[in-house]
Structures
1.
Amino acid sequence: MQIKKNILSGEEYPLILAPMAELSHRGIRELIHGWGGCSVFFTEMISASGLRANSPFERYYTDFGPTPSKTIAQITGSTTEDIIRAADILLEYDITGIDINMGCSAPEIRKKGGGSAWLTREKEVLYMLRIIKNTMPQNKTLSVKLRLPAEKEMSDFAMFLQKICNSGIDFISIHPKTSKEKHDRPARWQHLKELKRFINIPLIANGNITDCSTLLSRKEEYKPEGIMIGRKAIQSPWFFSLARKRMSGDKSPFTVDIEGEGIKAIELIKRYQPPEFWLSRIKRFFLYYTKNLFWGHNLFIKIKNSSTTEEIEKHFLEYFLKNPQEKIKEEK
Ligand SMILES: Cc1cc2nc3c(=O)[nH]c(=O)nc-3n(C[C@H](O)[C@H](O)[C@H](O)COP(=O)(O)O)c2cc1C
């Protein structure tokens, strides 16, 4: 099984796609896969209650291609019952594992007790993890992704973390920021050093990896068992491939067809997402992808204001008619 082998045997240093709502879906995973993929793909969070109700779009959330055996399905929910049942449903699929979202800071999720609000529900968390672990097939992983607590003292959190790690989960991913800190604030990696003392299972660290040199220095300094990458992997779907090269000391030129890759993203989103999702998912992708371009902010505003996918494509192609020198980018 991919992740256990990677994380526990250290065959390949794990570089992992973060779970991101409206982004870590099959279309984007295909785009990254086209560059050689990554060690493990997380899905976007899948609603436990939606899954149980078999709502109309569930088949898109449970499309685990292109590489189900390297894919971890992330569950979000606010009751132990919903999450335990959703885990049962997801474990029927040929995926590598399931992950419980205990980090999401979206107010609508926290209000119901889900996401990072789980950090205040210690007994229920430990009960839920034990129940799921007891019924899990041996060859699949159970993991938790969390943030730092906003409401708890760090020492209490460290004790809780220790209990979570002892509950039988296979690894833990930490985004070292509290639920009150927005995405534009830097992650506080220094906390991982202190917390590592309380973690006796593989730690996947996540937050603000913006280039290869940051990745390498974080790996060196904090020595997590793997690194999870979110927004940078959307801005640069080739980032995992580039990072592997640079990690192996290969400094050869790495060029990217920015125009071609953007068009491919639109095609893949349309191929693998339902029409109802096309506009939101394409716009969400370009929020990050346009950061590759000098006038990307202006282009994104046009994309954001577009009402059809054709209009988005037209603005994107027009950009390169005006700025042909930006079609091809040399990556460091
Ligand atoms: C648009 C967006 C959606 C996200 N959705 C999820 C999610 O579904 N589940 C989750 O655990 N974290 C989610 N996150 C948090 C990311 O997994 C990650 O922790 C965060 O982006 C920091 O990593 P980065 O700096 O590499 O982007 C989301 C982040 C973004 C930007």
2.
Amino acid sequence: MSVLGDAVSYADEKEGRLIQDICPLPGAEERQENSGSVLLDLHTEDSFHPYKPDYLSLYCLRSGPDRGAITVTGSIRAALPLLSPVSAATLREPIYRTRFSSSFADDAAAPRYTSPQPVLSGPADDPDLCVNFFGTEAVDERGATALDELRGAVEKVLCGVFLRPGDMIVIDNRTAVHGRTGFTPSYDGQDRWLRRCFAVADLRPSRALRKRDSRVCAPVR
Ligand SMILES: [Fe+2]
């Protein structure tokens, strides 16, 4: 990951560790988070965060006894040709808000959302994608229709992999969403176990959220 950029982490999540353990946790089964085990919907990692990672890596230490956990990715480069011009243009409008993950915000008080933002940005023929199909919602019907079309297009180009010990995948979080199919944990010490790491291409923009020489972003207030 250090070849691609600078490792970074977030104080809100996994205590800010740069290398994080990903395992199913009892009681978290239904959560749309790495600790859950139901279908994890397609998402840009930390799509709600102003300094989300540009890359994430998943290194497999243990596959687990249930072979149902398939890691899936979908690239906007592959999905873009499947979008209508109208929807592609709509997705560039700042009409989408994304709910903060529960590990970054106290949902008990009130759900926290980003300000309205576009889902697609950058070059018309090679855009960046930022979306969470569980947590992103449009502010109007037209935006919702385009979001549904995007979901359908991404689902048509999905790639899946069952990670085995020693496998590592690196995802470009700027152009691809990822998710995981559901599985049944056994909680006997033999479940699926990954190590995750984030990197950004440029560490400087997040400087105000980090202490000097630290890679850990403080909570967004
Ligand atoms: Fe993720």
